[in-house]
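User: I'm writing a tutorial on reading structure tokens. Could you give me a worked example: one chain, its sequence, then its tokens, then a sentence or two explaining what the tokens reveal?
Assistant: Sure. Here is the example chain.
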Amino acid sequence: MKRRTLLAAAVALACSSAAFAAGPIVIKFSHVVAVDTPKGRAALHFKKLAEERTQGRVKVEVYPNSQLYKDKEELEALQLGAVQMLAPSLAKFGPLGVKEFEVFDLPYIFDNYQELHKVTEGPIGQGLLKKLDSKGITGLAFWDNGFKQFSANKPLKAPADFRGVKLRIQSSKVLDAQMRALGALPQQMAFSEVYQALQTGVVDGTENPPSNFYTQKMHEVQKFLTMSDHGYLGYAVIVNKRFWDGLPPDIRTALDGAMKEATKYGNDLAKTTNESDLAAVRKSGKTQILTLAPAEKQALRKALIPVHRQMEDRIGRELIQAIYKETGFNPNE
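And here are its predicted structure tokens:
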């Protein structure tokens, strides 16, 4: 009887495997931002390329705007295999136990995309992605969103302007320290909840690249946007490691190629989208855009750079110094 049961189970397993092989491999790709953002459009571009290059053997289902999971839920869902692919912001990996990724949250560590890409596209970036292996995650690429600007219902131009202001942040010790260095009150909150929190006054302001600010309609509930360029918001495209390693080699090669092309597409798009969305915010007339004078920006920088040293024990002094060397950053300027 036991042997017959085992045989029946083996037959059922074989049948299910055959059925899976007969159909396309489904990749559920979940993210938390709008479709019409650099990440949203890059995800759809990856879907198109992946399905074309595998000739339908792979089907990519993209779920934007937290349709499946919120910020705090999506990484666990990936590790459990409920979804196969994510593109979470880099701040999300600190709470996961890979604190080195919080180096990207350090204020003013990158002056431009050229400096940034020396890190994300070079050995430092590849080394960081490799650290995800132990969490059951394979890192595929870094995607840009852009440089962040402060917003609030009062002008934020000098460090003193931030005192007592409740500003939404992601779950990041670095971002928490950044806000406290300015005298602001950091409020951790899921991205999907930010608009309502701004609308109801639960928080006074936030930090975002223009593409997020505009597509989430934050310009409707924020009176001022300060062009501070104080930090970078980017993502790591990641997959469930067990799923990825189990793919046929030719499928994995095709998906790698699709991801490489989608990454260039998305990163080029990030620059132009932030410019056009900033223009749309200005055109709306609902949010006043504040441009900082060089002295004002230097005052903000001076207030925030001490966060680098403060976070050395958490992130790793060697990593911070390696990025300084790669980009030519001078904390004393």
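What the tokens reveal: Residues 20-327 form a domain with the D-Maltodextrin-Binding Protein; domain 2 fold (CATH 3.40.190.170). The beta strands are 25-30, 58-63, 85-86, 137-152, 166-169, 185-188, 205-208, 224-240, 288-291.
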